[in-house]
Design goal:
heterodimer, A: about 575 residues, alpha/beta, FAD/NAD(P)-binding domain, seven-stranded mixed sheet, 19 helices, globular, B: about 500 residues, Enolase-like, domain 1, five-stranded antiparallel sheet, 14 helices, about 35% helix, Pyr_OxRdtase_I_AS (chain B), flavin adenine dinucleotide binding (chain B), selenocysteine (chain B)
Chain lengths: ~575, ~500
Amino acid sequence: RRRRLLGLIERSRVVIFSKSYCPHSTRVKELFSSLGAECYVLELDQVDDGAKIQEVLLEITNQKTVPNIFVNKVHVGGCDQTFQAYQSGLLQKLLQEDSAYDYDLIVIGGGSGGLSCAKEAAILGKKVMVLDFVVPSPQGTSWGLGGTCVNVGCIPKKLMHQAALLGQALHDSGKFGWEYNQQVKHNWETMTKAIQNHIRSLNFGYGLSLREKAVAYVNSYGEFVEHHKIKATNKKGQETYYTAAQFVIATGERPRYLGIQGDKEYCITSDDLFSLPYCPGKTLVVGASYVALECAGFLAGFGLDVTVMVRSILLRGFDQEMAEKVGSYMEQHGVKFLWKFIPVMVQQLEKGSPGKLKVLAKSTEGTETIEGVYNTVLLAIGRDSCTRKIGLEKIGVKINEKSGKIPVNDVEQTNVPYVYAVGDILEGKPELTPVAIQSGKLLARRLFGASLEKCDYINVPTTVFTPLEYGCCGLSEEKAIEVYKKENLEIYHTLFWPLEWTVAGRENNTCYAKIICNKFDHDRVLGFHILGPNAGEVTQGFAAAMKCGLTKQLLDDTIGIHPTCGEVFTTLEITKSSGLDITQKGC
Amino acid sequence: RGPMAAALRGVGRRFRWWNAGRGGRGGRRGARPGQRDYDLLVIGGGSGGLACAKEAAQLGRKVAVVDYVEPSPRGTRWGLGGTCVNVGCIPKKLMHQAALLGGLIRDAPHYGWEVAQPVLHDWRKMAEAVQNHVKSLNWGHRVQLHDRKVKYFNVKAGFVDEHTVRGVAKGGKEILLSADHIVIATGGRPRYPAHIEGALEYGITTGAADVALECAGFLTGIGLDTTVMMRSIPLRGFDQQMSSLVTEHMASHGTRFLRGCTPSQVRRLPDGQLQVTWEDRTTGKEGTGTFNTVLWAVGRAPDTRSLNLEKAGVDTSPNTQKILVDSREATSVPHIYAIGDVVEGRPELTPTAVMAGRLLAQRLFGGSSDLMDYDKVPTTVFTPLEYGCVGLSEEEAVSRHGQERVEVYHAHYKPLEFTVPGRDASQCYVKMVCLREPPQLVLGLHFLGPNAGEVTQGFALGIKCGASYVQVMQTVGIHPTCSEEIVKLRISKRSG
């Protein structure tokens, strides 16, 4: 039935799923006949399996009501949407449309989400184009194909994190019997060059895989000019126009600036840090996002003097108990924190690589101001969606005016039926590479592969690569209390001491594990949190288990792998409500 | 030796039965219920025994633990905590970590750290640090027993009758202990190939085959010239494709392998070195080599001989001398139980012994009826490239379900951390063995790569709750990690 339905939509110019007695259906039918369009009308009240067809329509379109209208394979919606499309001229365009478009799909943005969607669509036999263009940062940094993750996100960040961990490993190694001259220094240029080389090989790989799949890649800035039509401007300012039946917006985000004197002139962001040609020296990190803390963490790990300026709380949106522990570990390992201050002015005292900058900051609570001198000021106060300069207003794609994010339905469709969006620009969705990849791929399969699988944004695991890594999946304690009420929850927790830390003489009672269970649903695990080495590696499998409905009982029944950090979750005994001591004594 | 020993064992068995019957009727020498010294007596202070004792004490029972370490032929002995803490998992993983750090020191210059050459390793310093940690754990176990009011005796135990055990202390002082319930958790000790000339005099030991590879791995890692001699295949019982990748990786990192060889003699040369003679079983030729140390890892034997099990009537397997138990861990004598490595047919793993011990105490004294589930026990071999697995090997899955009904998804991958130092990742590999029929239930997971233990633990849970291939694929990855490779497995072996 599903296949029959999709076949029908594929073959017919206009399909109206209607009910013979429905006045809205009648209005739509009249509209199409006034436009002289030939329609395939299926009266669901007059066929045997009408109810079942309606169920299938609900799955495909997320709309159960009639009329339900498709024009040239594009789901327009119900009566109101059809009349809106008629008034905006979109409907007429859709009706004119045949294979006259240059492409089946144009993806704007060559990051994780855009590329996965483009490649999947190409695998399904569609003619696909990807537009990708990196607007240089105010400091002039730009990069190749692959988006934030590859160039200025996950990949260089994890490699720098690894470099910092190696510093710790060198420190530990003496305790494990290794002997060498302990005067070890870190060379920023060597590291950065190695990391940039790796990134360039990844850029090259992405380009190659697009070519292999016959996806057209254009290194130009894409902007909608009218329905189904986009203007692509290259580095030299040459403009080319392309048309496509469907579009996917995957433009991602870029770091936000403070909007104070001297910020764009003198400050850098994560866009610049990973390819900075010189060691940043004494650094002020502004912000308390995971980007801020990760960068501050590895910079301190290289032995640099690092200060983090925090406006209010660390890691907003994450479990605050964990966030607090992440921060205090950093503080114990040499990162300084300036709480409740915001910068108001940045001045250059000396030019150079690095130069010297004076930062003036004021308290968020009073009139106090402070001054500090740093070699580098790194802004990590958040990111803005790249949605305001791509002509969305020309075709009427709605964005959240405040955040710039694009609201979509559960099939990643915007308010303009043939325009979809994936990745960090989605409103209310996690900003994570694997999520973008998954949603991009599933979107292509739904559009072109007759699949119905939707992207599941629930229980998405993630890891913050601070010096002590923090992995989590599911709800934070705050959110769980808000949703389920405190009395309905049981929280199990413990501190632990990784075996590798003992001989190394690293601190006990620092690593921490916590699960949040719903007492009235078989102690089902709602939230999983771990602070410790290799948190990412530990969390992944538990995330898979949460997909299968993990309960406390199952954790208890599972045998640990000894000696690992992950095994701590199989022996959690102490509840938070009991108030019992969780510090480890002896072993 | 073979037939002779078997015959004798046969006689012993009958005798035990007879003895058990007598004990059961009269409770001849043992104290009567209510008059016995303890509710529970645990013989063996290793992972399983201690867990059982502590749990029972927690449930308000009067508990005693007896533990005694018979010195090894080379005179090595240790404190409370059993194999895992003293001569197993803990020191092994710490030495593995030392070797990993050696690799990281080599990586460091690529990441910008200017490490001056030469880099040397001091065994004594490492061993001392490891032993200090082990001693703190021994102490910790003592304190925990004390805190929970478990009586601890450092004596060698032997049964007097089915409710009474005689303990002999180091100085020869004896003590009689009686209990309503007795748990045997004496574990195992490494076997010496006694038939090889010089093996006992000159060799030292460690555990079974996986331990052999682990030791060879970290010894190579700290810069020693290490050779592994194998009679047949590495890691028997593990997935053979994974096993060969493990040894392939080790060989490419400097460990030498002598396959299909059996040693015939160990001789001390005038310069103090050891000369080993072996036979290559494929060519029939003899080979010799000189080494500073010969480490036997030919398996472990259960520590049951000195227990006088026949006095209590506890049955053992004639082949392995391991104790036979039912699903409730009960031996042939209903109130005597056995847990851990001393038991026939159980995985020789610390966490299984711990859980079995706790569950047993809960059944005995806590009104529980939960049985230990020995199915789908995850484990990790800490070879230089770690190998974590849970569930069935590919061979086992095929033999149980048939080639046609099994789908294997697999991938080679490159850990991100390997890229910058240009490490070779040819053996980083993951495979998931599933049923072919939708929704493709996961039968086994095998992961070879850094931090395999950490990666495997969570998936073990998933597999335990009946995860399907589809569910694992619906899980969003954590980027960039090695474990995300598991949720990205798309290619089946069948598809090529």
